[in-house]
């Protein structure tokens, strides 16, 4: 009843997810000696970057009571576009990065327009932009897969945002970048107007409108944030992996949304934290990376992911019943 | 290595049906304003872009036209079948086909046969094709190409393998994109079987572990407990680069791993990606893991130049496309044609610039 | 314009649906003309129909789920799971073809029960349930088949008789079966108790529950019907395209859902039109086929489908808003 | 009395199917409290929503501080100094009290929101208003009354010149109402004009200066509070409409059998040890303030919400009711207080809604016999005089009263012997209201038994044979209609339970 339990609830969920992470790490480490190496730790992080960045963005839309299904194909679309500019148009990497982000913001704004202004159901609207970005990505890149400059080339400097090597030791600096962004966005969600109104829209859109808030603007903005972070995720993806193939990317969004939900973000709006979403993403990535290590064929990871998702939501359902 | 520009005109042993079909078709002049439809597996990777380039070159040389098309994804079987059907509808003088799936195109091949359109398969053969529909296949012998990687890798790791004991076995990894596509299967098994052969020849006991398909279909899966050399096969849940990298990472993280082979562009890049974190790849087995790849592409070429991979096997997509058109024109001109086996070429930092290698190393 | 809209016939069929039919005809004609008439050919039509069948069954299935206000985007992977597991059982474990076909439907049914139970009885949001079952379907299929693709027998094969469901000689049996199924679905949705409750609970679940109706049962039934239809879709998929690979199938979710909502089924639930779904599926298939036939890449199809769906749904949403 | 600050003239507003405001006039003066009265559905809320820019008027003029104005949204109205406390709560359950209080006008520190300052300011405001609420509490954890006080505090916290209270007292306890009156008197001293909408006659006499009365969307007239009697106001409100004669004594014979007996029903905090009996042919009124737990009692009884304990007997037989199906099988029907949310499926037709509980009666084999269904639905449309062009009309296009009749028809087709009417006339216009009263009396006369939950005292006194009063989840008393008075009921409804 008191504010303590309020706080307790949110932190409780996060604490629980941290607990799950610890248990998973312990389990994998016991079952597989190769798992408990520095490099595995780094590769878990490597995979978590782009999913976590998408999760940060999509959490904003989830909190408004919507969803953004276009981030996965969007990510590939932006990444293809940027890569195409570098490889085929010889633009400097900085320009490509900016182009990536600009395109992502535009697609985010398009989602916002469809959902907040044209009042289309978020699921459907973003499903359509998912299809559109999937096609657009191939068209913008001329239908070809592209490879961004490698870390050995001077133009590959952007890869050092996420990972660089000192004396043969890989420093996963990306985790710092992502954590800073997580904390920043968590702060924005909790302590700025943008965040406040995002929660308010998810809580009761009509009442928020009656309070004189420019609901449309903030609603659109949530989708722009989602798009923008898909753009950042595109950069992380391009920086971590070698070649970007058109036609891929569908399904990435589900890892991000799944992570957010495991981390306690409610699919019906109003509830959730960015830190929670980030921790949830770590669970998903750990599963992807860890399960092959303990000798389970890669396909088991999909079954486990499905079960973990249901389990996570079931906790909420059972809690609510009590 | 078969490097003839024109196929051998050996006595007519194959595809008699096709030649009679052709004879029945309205006679065209040899210079040929022929039009062909070419269907590739997809345009996703640069591999196929190279193939299309070869097709265009051949068309330019012969003065024929060809229209290349392909689904968005190598797994879009349904789309490719439709494309093939559409191509047949257009009644071209011939069809070049790289089938995503060899079984799903059979009905369409029958339709092509009935319509009197000769089909040349390239990259991937269709073994069960109805008699006479496929007049020739221009494809890499994937088994040989996979074995080629093993043959070239083995000398480098020979000493380490020799030193291996049942108590302290060594591990050779292989990452395959999937266990479904015929060419990947053959390639993967080709590498495994050759490696087993080479190791057993040196008196080593070999075991194959990992993905069930490869374990069950290799020449001898052995026993992991007594083996001195363990070949571990990883297959990602889906063919995305991140999951391919995870599989590579899993294998490369193991302390006893001495070598790893990525059996196509995606998985070879997976190995390279995993190495970004692990930093274990080296050209000397004493210093780290020996890596080998398959196909080309900028990242692989760079990795070879930088001493991350000792080399890679390239097919010649360019030549395959090129020869497909030549074969089709021959068919149209009533010549008898034969299957053209294409070789896999081992390339490394030394021979990358060679005249007969460089054109096949697409970006 | 207003006059047309007020016309009794137009009102009954629905203005937007008539527009859709027109869109479809225009598309068909223009594809026909652009391909020099080849698109009109009988065998071409049969090809198009191959795509209509399996997508149509998926779309019919998901229509029931969307009618309850839910969503299921595990249908594509579940369809592949059905085809893979039953096909693998046939090829490797030697079960008879008839049993394999039944198995396919049963697997679809089991997924329907699983999804429906979690949604209706455990109150887990449909979105999350389908996200989970999509992963589970892919995983099970891959584990069961040892990540092998499965090629069903050809029509020339002794066991290839199942292909007669798709096409028997030159008789488009698939069309007959699909239309019959659509009519049955239409009857179930509009004329039976099950359909009535599914639609009503989609419109206002709480009101139906407070009327003393076992809403959980009916809500679950929608998912079960969907599951069965997905199992049937699997048969039509392999009947036309022979081979299925593990790990895929998601690409058909979007198209099936798009076909359904394009036809006027509301994502908010309560409003569903089987006729609309059939038209929607035809449009999607035409688009898919036409774009391929014109030699354009599939990318255009994605973009155009996305735009058409947005337009169709926006038309519905704004019409409803004007009414209120 | 102060100068005129606000004039509304000839305001007209129609909703599809409802002419909600028909050339209404209104005049508000500085430093006065103007009561705006009228039956449910008279158009009071609509008029205020037009004033504050929530609805766009069809015609008419609004003059504020001498200038003609037209606010496009609440924000503009707020900025001009007109704020409104809405009838329905507009809370954001996921945010704290302070965050709710300052939503849309947060204090800022740089680009961030200064939650600390907001909490402090909220504390100051609550201290000044003498309300005991923790600003850091999550809004959804407050009682309805406290939430309402937050809304009032929020209105006060604006530097407003005109404050509109739309039925603020409905959810408040006596003590809270006293607090609110203090606040209002305070505001009056500051020359702030207020519009006070309430159905409670006593409050009107205590706190307001003038009374403007509306009826059926029209302006009837304005009285000076001190110079008129309750009866004057009621006459103006009710006008030509003749209500069913109020009951003065129970119409139920002494020996009428007990059809429903509830013993020691417990369901959460809102239903604690509730027991009562319902006789055949009886209308049993349930009275109490909002939040008294009557709805919860009804829902628990009906099986709509889980219950912890308690026995239910129907016609003397003990029954188990765990879900609405069980209740329906026992012959119980429930008309929810929130029609739109729990009563009708608005996107479905009248016929479909009518047969919602009884589809199985219209089956021919596995098919629904639509003809028979339509015929039966039409029968009830005629019997209840539901205004609808046809039974194929979508319910969303019907007015509230007619929607209510569709819900009643639903239970009548089911032949339910026990009917629970939860706020049967909420949001229903005067004419329809009377028809529903007639209908209820008719049903009771036919031997059906009715539980009627109502927050309107007049309705309770007019319709009930017996009255159960609840307060904070407990039954606090039971009075026969012959002895019942408003005061007695109010006493029981606000009784502090030891
Ligand atoms: N948004 C709306 N759409 C359609 N009809 C409406 C709408 N809002 C109000 N009405 C109708 O307008 C009429 C006046 O409603 P209003 O809420 O103004 O009454 P009121 O006097 O405030 O009643 P109460 O005392 O119950 O609050 C009613 O018949 C109501 O059903
Ligand atoms: N467990 C609870 N905790 C907090 N608030 C609750 C709880 N249960 C109910 N409430 C609130 O109290 C109100 C209960 O009112 P309820 O409808 O039961 O009372 P009522 O006597 O029927 O009054 P009315 O019908 O006039 O609203 C609900 O609107 C709800 O917001
Ligand atoms: Mg009102
Ligand atoms: Mg109530």
From TrEMBL, chain C:
Key words, A-Z: Cell inner membrane, Cell membrane, Membrane, Transmembrane, Transmembrane helix, Transport
Topological category with respect to the lipid bilayer: Multi-pass membrane protein
Source organism per UniProt: Roseburia inulinivorans DSM 16841
GO MF: transmembrane transporter activity
Name the record gives this protein: Branched-chain amino acid ABC transporter, permease protein
GO CC field: plasma membrane
Locations listed in the record: Cell membrane
Entry-linked CDD domains: TM_PBP1_transp_AraH_like (cd06579)
Broad class of where this protein is predominantly found: membrane
From TrEMBL, chain D:
CDD domains, alphabetized: ABC_Carb_Monos_I, ABC_Carb_Monos_II
Topology of the protein relative to the lipid bilayer: Peripheral membrane protein
Gene3D superfamilies from the UniProt entry: P-loop containing nucleotide triphosphate hydrolases
Localization per record: Cell inner membrane; Cell membrane
Biological-process GO terms, alphabetical: monosaccharide transmembrane transport
Record key words, sorted: ATP-binding, Cell membrane, Membrane, Nucleotide-binding, Repeat, Sugar transport, Translocase, Transport
Signal sequence range: none
Keyword Repeat: yes
UniProt xrefs under InterPro entries: AAA+_ATPase, ABC_carbohydrate_import_ATPase, ABC_transporter-like_ATP-bd, ABC_transporter-like_CS, P-loop_NTPase
Entry protein name: Sugar ABC transporter ATP-binding protein
Organism whose genome encodes this protein: Roseburia inulinivorans
